[in-house]
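Field: COMPLEX_INPUT
Field: COMPONENT_COUNT = three
Field: RESIDUE_TOTAL = 668
Field: MODE = joint
Values follow.
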Amino acid sequence: MTAGRRWPFHVAASDPETSVLLAMTVRELELDLDAFEGPFDLLLTLVLREELPLVGVDVAGIVLAFVERLAEREELDLDACGEFLVLVAALLELKARGLLAGEADLEDLEPGEAAEELARRLEEYRRIKGAAEWLAERLASERDRFFRLGPAPLAPRGERRLAEQDPAALAALLQALVAEPPEVSLAHLELRFPPVSRFLEQFRAVLGRRARFDFDHEVGGLTRVEQAVAFLALLELRRAGEIRLEQAAPFAPIRVSREVVDEEVSWNARSA
Amino acid sequence: MERPLRLIQANPLDSLARAIEALLVVASQPLSVGALVEACGDEAERIETALGLLGERYREGRSGIVLEQVAGGWAFRASRDAAEACGRLFERPVERNLSQAALETLAVVAYLGPCSRPDIARWRGVAVDSVVAGLVERGLIAEAGRGDLGAVRYRVTPLFERVFGLESLAALPRLDDFGGDADELRGRLESLAERRPA
Amino acid sequence: MERPLRLIQANPLDSLARAIEALLVVASQPLSVGALVEACGDEAERIETALGLLGERYREGRSGIVLEQVAGGWAFRASRDAAEACGRLFERPVERNLSQAALETLAVVAYLGPCSRPDIARWRGVAVDSVVAGLVERGLIAEAGRGDLGAVRYRVTPLFERVFGLESLAALPRLDDFGGDADELRGRLESLAERRPA
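Field: COMPLEX_OUTPUT
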């Protein structure tokens, strides 16, 4: 696997004569989803910062966008596909945990049962989306149906009268309102993923001590979710130009090293 | 479906009259000729002729719907023949129950008032604007000056005391564990509100 | 415009039908047969027959006022022919700019209500507080007591049924009938695969 693999694609340039073959990384893949519009890596960042709820993100839509981009290409870039698969797998795992979070009994489920439960919930969500679409169509077809809201201009003004009420009902409601809520289960907290900032700090600290390190070595012993988040932190650092990534061959160890900053370039960038 | 079509062809004002019927049945206030001109995109003179036709059709003794010219323009009303039925429809409701939202809001205002809408919303954990507006409209709560932060505060009314059969607010049933101490209740609600998930 | 009137006058139900017309033209919301029975002091069967006659008279294409069965009752509305004129004069505050989030929340509450904000959030996978508050403000959903954990629960209102032109919630399609888009997704993927150069 090579992180930050370039993913070439054609851009519709204003002058087709000079249309250039630009390169982009998988992370720059432009997405146009219901919940999000923009590059893939921004989506990842927002998800990891918990600013964008992953449950609302249509992962199938991301896959379609990628496959569509792939279809525009003449040949298959296996490395890009590999990187994409890893990122999407991480997203799917996070999403699955998000969907399953909040129910204490789920941790008792066998993996097979949990998968079934997840499939059931996705199916339910799909039905609700279908129902929402139906409502939207209904609203459109009823657009030419006007009716009055509120009383007619010359309607008799009847006095609203209320039957006698029991003050004990008020006491009971207030009593319920001041009652301690039942203990909330904290079981779902175990399913949460760590903040990306934790790994940003960890990797920066390591690079403060050493010029380079092996990614696999640093994340060995972590859970798969933690590894996925750590990997995304790595991408974030590379995007910020703080590190350089090398990998001798697919599945070979990923070597992380400090980026050597070109003083002049960085000065220009600041003044621009 | 056949007949009225032939009718339209016979009377060029018919479709205009139907548009006016439609506008009047949807309107919440009387419509002036000017408003009808704007809505129908037709001339005032033709609008007035159409209104004449409609007045003929929707008149006392002929229809339950009566077209009436009032200060602000034209509006439909119920025929006098139907006054008794209308009276029953509009006066009938001696409402048995207040909604859960209304009762809970009343409980808060009765025990902890005067309090503002933000107070009630925080303590109940839901938006209360429409509930409070409804209770004011029914005369069960009323404004009672402004609080420190400038928000209008509310208290229950004498009508509230009557409906709940109370001599005064002091006659409200005590809550278990709270010896009628409003400050303690308020403190408890504030601490619950702080811990409530957003 | 003349003909239907003679029809009503010739019928012994005429005065009942006129009373119903009168009630419907001033009512604030759809009137159930029960409400009409009470207001008119007549039998349900005769009320229903009279409603049938009125439905004939006030129907699309024949009158600017249309009688419809909606939200568990009967109500007058404007004919669809007059939609353009109505659109120039009246706002549609209830349904304007209903977001995707609002529609999904409405779907959850309509099909699975009464349910609480945490319930809805679980279905939609995102925080729904402001969406729920907006729908309450529009009058499309309302509070319906508290659930086991003390959270306020919501249900859709008669206004929801009216805005969506539903006779009742039973007129919604079955939830099980939605969800065929797994196949659609697969189809899109397959068609892309076919387009790929060999």
